[in-house]
Write a structure and sequence with these properties.
This protein is an alpha/beta fold. The protein is about 35% helix and about 20% strand. The radius of gyration is 24 Å and the shape is globular.
Length: about 500
């Protein structure tokens, strides 16, 4: 069935009465959706669209004697933007953030939606009152957009009688989001539309897993997967005993962040990154592998080299046994200035609460960006989109933890195999990868390494995967030049234009 427009008062009233005073209605939840009409003024003319915000009830088919009888198990919150052209063949982008525990407010208001937050940037975060601006680079120009919040984020909650923990895990979350995509395509009669998935951070883990689930379970092939600040193999970024991979992969990011804070005067960022990558790939692995076999003078020389690359005291590097953990680095880099450095975006800084702290205590980049997103999403949903709920919109929720990785006991959590399988099964699926040089959450070199090891033909890696870089951090769209560049790259990706386009028949 299709979603029917209704007023905010009617929808909210039905939902409130069902949840607060009528036990039978609470036991059988209903969709709570509000549709509003909008127009965005663009240089080429107005873009008319509908926005449908609210929760939809997802049902599952139990096994055993009840097989085939759908039962409600989740109420997922989303906002669907559909251009009023009525073109059923228009692409649809399903977008989500990560965490786990992050709502999709970041991609929604930071990059993709028709309205965007004025968040400010490193060194100049926005002050209240926070405001929204028209987003003239919205992906809505090229595709319809659905932003969906994972369980226990945003307004998404389990159905009455269900437990949220059943959705708090990689496999469970994957299945839930895939079920939402199938439900949305059916409700809106959009089964013939090209389908794109866009994820950020853990959302890239989710996007790869969901793409595989859609193909393996439903035989739905996505047209493209946009991986923004990706993590496809946690073994490449999680520091643990006996695992030297993160130390290698983080080093180029440390060097880039050091450059942002003036540690490489009169040098270009790209030159610094290239030198750090060459060291991380050629000399550094052998130095770490040598361990106690490394002579003292060799260790001192290596520490001096690393210290110069990442902008810290070589003696500190030597005491760390040449292994620099990222939270320790972010506390150390600007210690002499009394500052702590951002993790999500290493261009950000804030006063250190404890000048002797061994690790960063809080992330200045999240602290300085999140308030503008929190204020504007709550105002936007209730004001412009006319949707209200009696629960808190969870921007970032720790209630999703512990997050289950039960299928990965005694091995690294990874979805690179999922992405490889999708690309092998679906010859038309393409991938756009977006890296921020100053991202100390999901370092670009780790992603480069994992992508280069995908179990696909070499020509597919060269022709179907486009990799882009931005002089910003994890949420590179808070940096205006990077936002404009990423928006253009996404437009080219969805429309098939630009560098990612396949040759036309005339070019064959």
């Amino acid at each position: 069935m299709t979603e029917q427009p209704r007023t905010a008062d009617t929808a909210a009233g039905q939902a409130d009465s069902g949840r607060a005073s009528d036990p039978s209605a609470a036991a059988t939840p209903e969709d709570h959706l509000v549709t509003t009409l909008h127009s965005l003024s663009l240089p080429d003319g107005p873009l008319d669209y509908t926005a449908t915000a609210g929760t939809v009830v997802l049902k599952e088919e139990p096994e055993g004697e009840e097989y085939g009888r759908g039962a409600a198990f989740a109420e997922l919150f989303s906002v669907s933007y559909v251009v009023s052209s009525g073109d059923a063949a228009r692409p649809v982008v399903f977008a989500f953030n990560g965490g786990p525990g992050a709502s999709t407010v970041w991609l929604h208001l930071g990059l993709l939606g028709p309205r965007r937050v004025d968040s400010g940037d490193a060194g100049a975060p926005a002050a209240p009152p926070h405001q929204l601006l028209d987003n003239h680079e919205t992906i809505l120009k090229d595709a319809d957009l659905v932003v969906v919040d994972a369980m226990t984020t945003g307004f998404s909650r389990p159905a009455p009688g269900q437990k949220p923990a059943r959705h708090h895990g990689l496999a469970e979350d994957r299945d839930l989001i895939a079920a939402f995509v199938i439900d949305w395509l059916t409700r809106h009669q959009r089964w013939t539309s090209p389908i794109f998935l866009a994820g950020e951070s853990y959302g890239t883990t989710r996007a790869s897993a969901v793409a595989a689930r859609l193909m393996d379970r439903y035989y739905v092939a996505v047209a493209g997967i946009a991986l923004i600040s990706p993590v496809l193999d946690f073994g490449s970024i999680v520091f643990s005993a006996g695992n030297d991979r993160p130390y290698l992969h983080y080093l180029p990011t440390y060097a880039a962040i050091a450059h942002a804070h003036g540690k490489h005067e009169d040098r270009m960022l790209q030159d610094v990154v290239d030198e750090a990558e060459a060291f991380a790939e050629q000399e550094y692995p052998a130095l770490l592998a040598a361990g106690l076999r490394l002579a003292p003078e060799q260790k001192q020389e290596a520490a001096a080299r690393i210290g110069a690359l990442i902008g810290v005291d070589p003696e500190w590097v030597e005491r760390a046994d040449l292994r620099v953990e990222h939270l320790a680095f972010l506390a150390e880099l600007q210690r002499d200035r009394g500052l702590v450095t951002g993790r999500i975006d290493g261009r950000f800084s804030a006063p250190a609460g404890n000048g002797n702290s061994a690790r960063m205590e809080t992330d200045p980049s999240i602290d300085q960006l999140a308030p503008s997103y929190t204020a504007t999403i709550n105002q936007y949903l209730r004001g412009e989109l006319e949707f209200s709920s009696d629960v808190v919109y969870e921007i970032m929720s720790g209630r999703v933890h512990p997050w289950s990785y039960k299928d990965f006991e005694n091995r690294s959590v990874e979805v690179a195999s999922d992405l490889s399988r999708v690309l092998r099964k679906s010859p038309h699926t393409k991938v756009l990868v977006s890296h921020g040089y100053h991202d100390a959450a999901t370092p670009f070199h780790a992603s480069e390494h994992v992508l280069a090891q995908l179990a696909i033909p070499r020509e597919d890696y060269a022709e179907r995967i486009r990799i882009e870089y931005y002089e910003a951090g994890h949420m590179m769209y808070c940096h205006e030049p990077s936002r404009l560049a990423l928006s253009q790259h996404l437009s080219e990706f969805v429309t098939g234009a630009g560098p990612a386009a396949a040759p036309s028949a005339d070019e064959d």
